[in-house]
Amino acid sequence: MPENVLNVAVIGAGYWGPNLARNFHASxxxxxxxxxxxxxxxxxxxxxxxxxxxxxxxxxxxxEDPALDAVAIATPARTHHAIAAAALAAGKHVLxxxxxxxxxxxxxxxxxxxEAAGLVLMADHTxxxxxxxxxxxxxxxxxxxxxILFIDSVRINLGLIQPDVDVFWDLAPHDLSILDFVLPxxxxxxxxxxxxxxxxxxGTACVGHLILELGTGALAHIHVNWLSPTKIRQLxxxxxxxxxxWDDLNPQQRISxxxxxxxxxxxxxxxxxxxxxxxxRLGDTWxxxxxxxxxxxxxxxxFAASIRTGRQPQTSGNSGLRVLSVLDAxxxxxxxxxxxxxxxxxxxxxx
Length: 351
Description:
By secondary structure, the chain is α/β, with parallel strands linked by helices. It contains nine helices and 15 strands. The strands form two sheets. Strands 14-13-12-11-7-10-9-8-15 form a nine-stranded mixed sheet. Strands 3-2-1-4-5-6 form a six-stranded parallel sheet, with helices on both faces. The longest helix has 20 residues, at 317-336. The two termini are 31 Å apart. The mean pLDDT is 93.
């Protein structure tokens, strides 16, 4: 192998681990050295399809390998903190699938430990590496939409009801990570209001609505649902100049930009406003061309680049922490029935 190739092990051979293993194995930046899972037979099957990587059923034994540069954690969220802490203590760079941890406190500890050790802690916010979301970020940063007025996101399907997390913790991390990626300065709402429903009596919220006050007068609304017979993956970002619609299930036209909206002439007082001050803009609609590449391939390349250069990855541990802070606020809001303020994340560093 070339000297600059990095050695990585995937921990967890269940649902997401095979996707990570396949992309690490195919990447010129990485050598997939091991698959680790408590189910050694399952790990062996995955290793066989991913270039014959070594098989391991002990995280401790895996981390004793001095040639191992990094680990990718694809295990249940409740285990992320313990595995990441052990990996960082062993001097390994860490990639963690969403959510970063099971609690905000655990996430803060992970970020603090990685920064103190000078190691990369990266959140696998896969959607952020799709061509569509990369383009949305470019359009927002370039001012094509103008000031953000509202955000509406829908992620619903007939999904698997999780025994250990509610629908917010299961589905909303995707939408929150996207918003954190495309909004200048990241996702930093003032407060969150969450309403969850358990119509099946499953013991956890299966349908949820999350409203975020962004601090500029704009609101972001996220609708998540495990019970819908139809699958919808749609994001609408309304701006003062244009409105963008992303339909992830429409491969022919994933992004549409509408030069349509409402213009309200600025007046000094309410008495001076009337319907004559309002005009409706009905302009063109266009769809930008998008390159074709697999998001996970771009993500593993970014992980390698951040390790080699010593810079923060595009979806750093701090990004994962901002997502966790909103999920934590959503839980508190459901418990109290009131809006929950977002904490100040003092651990954040420039990314």
